[in-house]
Every structure is written in C-alpha cells, then in structure tokens.
Amino acid sequence: xxxLPISSIGVGKIDDVQELIKSKPNKVPERFIREANERxxxxxxxxxxxxxxxxxxxxxxxxxxxxxxxxxxxxxxSQACEDWGFFQVINHGIEVGVVEDIEKVAKEFFEMxxxxxxxxxxxxxxxxxxxxxxxxxEDQKLDWCNMFALGVHPxxxxxxxxxxxxxxxxxxxxxxxxxxxxxxxxRLLKYIAISLDLKEERFExxxxxxxxxxxxxxxxxxxxxxxxxxxxxxxxxxxxxxxQQSKNSRVGLQILKDNTxxxxxxxxxxxxxxxxxxxxxxxxxxxxxxxxxxxxxxERERLTIVTFYAPNYEVxxxxxxxxxxxxxxxxxxxxxxxxxxxxxxxxxxxxxxxSLDFAKILN
Length: 363
Ligand code: OGA
Ligand code: NI
Hints:
Layout: H1 17-23, E1 55-57, H2 68-83, E2 86-90, H3 96-111, H4 114-117, E3 129-131, E4 146-153, H5 170-195, H6 202-207, E5 211-219, E6 231-234, E7 240-245, E8 253-257, E9 260-263, E10 271-275, H7 277-282, E11 292-294, E12 302-310, E13 316-317, E14 336-337, H8 338-346
Parallel strand pairs: 1-2
Antiparallel strand pairs: 2-10, 3-4, 4-5, 5-12, 6-11, 7-10, 7-12, 8-9, 8-11, 13-14
Helix pairs in contact: 2-5, 3-5
Bound molecules: N-oxalylglycine (OGA) and nickel (II) ion.
Residues 215, 217, 231, 236, 243, 252-253, 292, 294, 304, 306 line the site of N-oxalylglycine.
C-alpha cells in the first residue's frame, strides 16, 4: 500500500452501504447496479461439489522433512499453487482466541455510528482508512462493501491517525493478530520455496523487511444480490494473502477456475491463502495469482479480514533464475521495483488480472 500523492480526484458521491440499507433497505442505487455481464450471481456450492479448493494441513508440514506426511503435503501445496492459486490451511497453530478477538473488534468497528468511523477517512486516491478504495472516477460502479484498511508493518507505512481509539482493544488485537499472521506467512513461504526445490530461506532473504497491510471488508446484506458486486474481480498485488472470514457467514468469495466462478466454502478454523501477483512473477507463472471476487446475499452481513504480505518496496522483482530456461521456459515478466508495482496496483481500479500487464513481457 504505497502512499498516493493524488490530491483531488473527482469520484462523485460515494454512498456508505451500511447507511443505505438502514434508510432504504430495499433500494439499490444506480451506481451499484452492474452491467449484466458483470453481475455476481451466487452459485450454490452444491453445484460445485466436485470443485473444492485444496486443503493443506500445516501440522503435517511441522514433521521432519524426510517424513512421508511432510513430502505428501508439500506435493499437495505445490499442486494447489499451480492449479488453483488458492488453498485453505488447517492446523495452522494460531490460537482461536486471537482469531476471535480480531473478528470481534472488526465487527464492533463497522457497527459504530458513521460519524465515528468517519474520523478515519480513506481520502480519495489513498488506500488506508475507512471507505471504498480503488475509485478513480465519477462514473465508476461501486462495490456493495465498506472497507477499513491499515498499513501494519514496517511501522513506517503506518498512518497512526487512522488507528482507531474505539473499539478500545482494536489496535492491541490487530497488533497481536498481525504478528501471528506474519509468522504464518513466513512459514508458508518456506514451504512454498521447498515445493519449488529452492532453498528454504529464498523468499525471506529476498523480501527484506516485508510489508504487511490489513483490509477489513464488511458486506451488508443486499436486497438484490443479483444486481451488485461485493468486491470487483481482481488478483492481489501481494506475494501471499491470508483471508479470514467471520464465523457462520455465508459463502461470498468466488475464484475463477477454468472460466467458472467457484465459491469457496470456508472450513471451521481454517484460513484461506492465495498466491498474489508477486509470486506469480517470481515463479515465472508456475504458481498462479488467480482472479477472485466477492458476492453478497440477501440474508446476512459478511465480514472478512484480509492480510496482504509483500516484499519490501525496495526489492527488485523478476522471475527467479532457477525457474527460467531460455529454451523450455522463457522469461515471461520483466524486472521492476516492488514499490513501483504497488503504486501501479493501488492507482488503478480493480479489473481482473489487468494490473499484471505492468510486468508482462508482451511478444
Ligand atoms: C480482498 C479479497 C475477498 C473477500 O480483500 O482482496 O479478495 O471475500 N476479499 O472479502
Ligand atoms: Ni483479493
């Protein structure tokens, strides 16, 4: 989440979705209604029983590296990253209390009166604070979602004015949660390196002081989920993304697999992990950053807490030499500075995998 120096861009009136449904529960303003080909119908997961994102058991990856369980799970991980770009992790070792505590304060935050949340505004052209990100024009359609985003690590990317004083334990819980998610990301990157036949520390050494940001997405119920989009289709600019979905919420996340939107049915106590654009580039496209989106439903709100983990802005990104072969696997992406990619990502609207065009070598 690189800072954006754009000072005043015309974005038109952005309605706060939670306020909208309070005053007119059955009305969907024009600016939220998508073109027919962009609408997010909620496919029943029953029609996709054959289509479940892979599950990786981290307890098996804690075993000695020569153990059959370890090797089998690494294989599963590598297939998940190649074929899906998405997987769920179970037995990740993060205490239930930590997960519940962040969910509690996030929910309390969104339930506060608008005046309170407005003390932490996401100014047009910036990506931290409360509001809607990625809006750059007056005619751009809006997502059926309220967001609260914060830079977390390193401390230099924080905007302390945006860390809320209410709910009381918000900052404390976010700190605790972020530490755990950071450890998880470092662990996952080790396993991902092993799955690619690379040295365990390969990513950690390359990434330097990794950048970590969090975005909380609150999707209120919608009287016409068939007309709107919760979150526009996109891939993530991160290296890895960790998504936590509030307990008992409806399925909302969908990923594009073989040209079909496949719903992700979260498992209890699991976290959803996805490969971001950065790992796609580093692996020369072997591991995929897959397009995904969120849809809404009529009955119940849905809350997700999403962590983006990425290299330091200074780091040069390009396909790793080990994974490029001029004859059989030529280099597909150019070399760039991660900070430049971050800036490019946040200064454009979400539009499928379009942001990766920045890095592609087009023949
Ligand atoms: C995101 C994201 C999906 C969701 O925040 O990048 O993909 O279900 N969220 O909230
Ligand atoms: Ni995403």
